[in-house]
Amino acid sequence: MLIAGVECGGTTFKVSIAGYDKVSKKLDRLETTIIDTTTPPETINKVVEWLQQKQEEHKKGDPIVSIGIASFGPVDLDKSSPTYGYITTTPKPNWHYADVVGGIKKAFPEVPIAFDTDVNAPAVAELASGHHGNVKSLAYITAGTGIGVGLSLDLRPVHGMMHPEGGHIPVPLAPQDVKDGFTQGTCPYHGCCLEGLANGIAIAKRKNISFGDIKNLEDADPVWDTVAHYYAVLCTNLFLIGSVEVIVLGGGIFQRKILYEKVRNATVKLLNGYVSKVSADTIKGQIKDSEFGADAGIMGAFYIAINNINKD
Ligand SMILES: [Zn+2]
Predict the structure, then answer these.
(1) Domains defined along the chain, listed by start
(2) Residue 285 C-alpha to ligand 1 middle, in angstroms?
(3) Among candidates 64, 86, 241, which has minimal Cα distance to 162?
(4) Average pLDDT for residues 211-222, to the nearest whole number?
(5) Ion ligand 1: residues, CB < 5 A
(6) For the ranges 57-61, 289-293, 295-299, the one whose mean pLDDT is highest
(7) What's the CA-to-centroid distance between 294 and ligand 1, angstroms?
(8) CA 148–ligand 1 middle distance (angstroms)
(9) Among residues 22, 12, 11, which one has the least CA distance to residue 305?
(10) 196 C-alpha vs ligand 1 centroid, how far in Å?
(11) Contact 2, 62 (CB under 8 A)
């Protein structure tokens, strides 16, 4: 059967179709396109046109049977809400209360559409792919200019009031930041929340360099210990509150591979033996790289679409 995935990003939309075999559970990705994010009607029209064209080319008698959409947020995931399927209070021009699901539903009225955040959906995909073994609860973190935290507990993405916004948790200042007087975070809402202290902008600000020059910092730069402290605080909270079995760290900041070891060590230190299942011996299998890398969003979209099929 043919399924579609749509990853809505602030700069581009990634749209892809795949064949899915319900029996073998094999996903065979067929084609992908990238569409610039302009206005909502123009962008969504291009998504729809591409999907319709691909459906014609690939269907062999079968139409698209399920569509998954993984979107930047905040989004409305409450099916009883009049703005379900919308991107809501984003500062992104034109996208404030943009109806994403509705625009695609209009073109594919018979097709079930699964909708989630661009971090919840990858959390679902990382779990469903089996890459991390037989685990049922996982957090997916992406860190760049923003910090997104997706949570899937007992194989279900966490929605609740809306969806987790773990990038904005309050965090204790790193000792080095206290010493240096770096106590003004970059978050316009909270100043020193996790995002305000550990996103790319905060790293650049500490070093007095441009965002683009972060990649030129040396691995030995002590700033990485400071950065690791903040992600370790997040991981510690995720273990304690979500009782997650695996935490996947991805996004631009985690291109810096030395961070994984630093975050693992700092997390073990913060937990200090309190959670017996998290120790220096186990942590490598609990704080990990993404299986899908840059494809995490689109794979997330596919896997929530698959969940919709398997629900039937
Ligand atoms: Zn914040």
Answers:
(1) 2-123+294-310 (3.30.420.40), 134-290 (3.30.420.40)
(2) 29
(3) 86
(4) 97
(5) 168, 187, 189-190, 193, 195
(6) 295-299
(7) 24
(8) 11
(9) 22
(10) 6
(11) yes
